[in-house]
Amino acid sequence: MPEPVFLDADKVGTLSELVASAGRIGLDTEFMRERTYYPQLCLVQVATDRTICCVDPLGAQDIEAVWDTLMPASWVVHSGRQDIEVIYHSAGRMPAGLFDTQVAAALLGYQPQLGYAALVSELFGKQLAKSHTRADWSRRPLAAELVEYAAEDVEHLLPAADRLTERLAAAGRLDWALEDSAYLLDEALYRPDPGDAIRRLKGARRLSGRALAAATRLAAWREREAEQRNRPRQWILGDAVLLTLAVTAPDSRAALNRIEGLPAGTIRRVGDELLEAVAAIAGDPESTATPPRPDDAHRSRLASIQEQVSAAAAELGIEPEVIAPKKELTAALFGERDLRVLRGWRRTLIGADLLKVVDE
Fold this sequence. Notes:
Layout: E1 5-8, H1 12-19, E2 24-32, E3 40-47, E4 52-56, H2 63-70, E5 74-77, H3 81-91, E6 97-100, H4 101-106, H5 116-124, H6 144-155, H7 157-171, H8 174-183, H9 209-229, H10 233-236, H11 239-248, H12 253-257, H13 264-279, H14 296-316, H15 320-323, H16 326-333, H17 344-358
Parallel strand pairs: 1-4, 2-5, 5-6
Antiparallel strand pairs: 2-3, 3-4
Helix pairs in contact: 1-2, 9-11, 9-13, 14-16, 14-17
């Protein structure tokens, strides 16, 4: 590996010289989010065919100049959704193009969640060290061994992309990989949606009726509060406490005080908002309607389309979830149509046939 160059983000001239003629770059990030809602970008690793540089964004006077340098390039990443998220929240824009090596590998039959170290081992027979997975990347000065460790995460990205591209082209699936990689550049993926927060609430699937409606409203409130204060969701209101609020539907501060695990300081600060969120359900009968659940007919059709997906996956030598996870198939049965399995190469491969079963 070439000696990595460590750059302050303000030394954008040097960065420009390193990547100006590259056209494409390998990219990874290190970030922290244990104490914040939005991830804190701590390091950006960039690889070209000739060099590797680690850019330090902390304390930068003009981080926009870094993005001006990097955004025109096409990026090669591995499992890049979180990297794209942290950069999008810093830069507010997307790169010119994207190729995700994890996405590409899955289309060649590797496990869908194959890690970067495992991919490097599979493709090149090299073992990467994983000794600093819990490092505090926000500390400065950054130790030399951490810089070297971070640089390893981009060292093999471009060669891996080349090898995977060759195999995908031979299999006639390169366009599939490009389509699935480009999907990660959809800005809507990275914009907080309080209305969707219930999907991240552990235990919500056990709820129904009024309790589910209250949990949905409380989860949305927590999401907005966490974003506004830039604090982790669990710091605002723990999942277990939120579920208890939804199930017990307290109607007074005295009732709030009886809920185990709900801090007194939280009650003083936002107790009225919690009570309002729960009380609002009583005045909205539609919100307490139980969402549709699979009956025998739905389960039979789900099994039928899962078999079709599995058969198509087996013929391609890939995992069925790469074509369509179960939750997408279930959503299709309940009428959703804005689904990946019904777009692009998946629609051509199997989506049109699935619609025939779904619409029966």
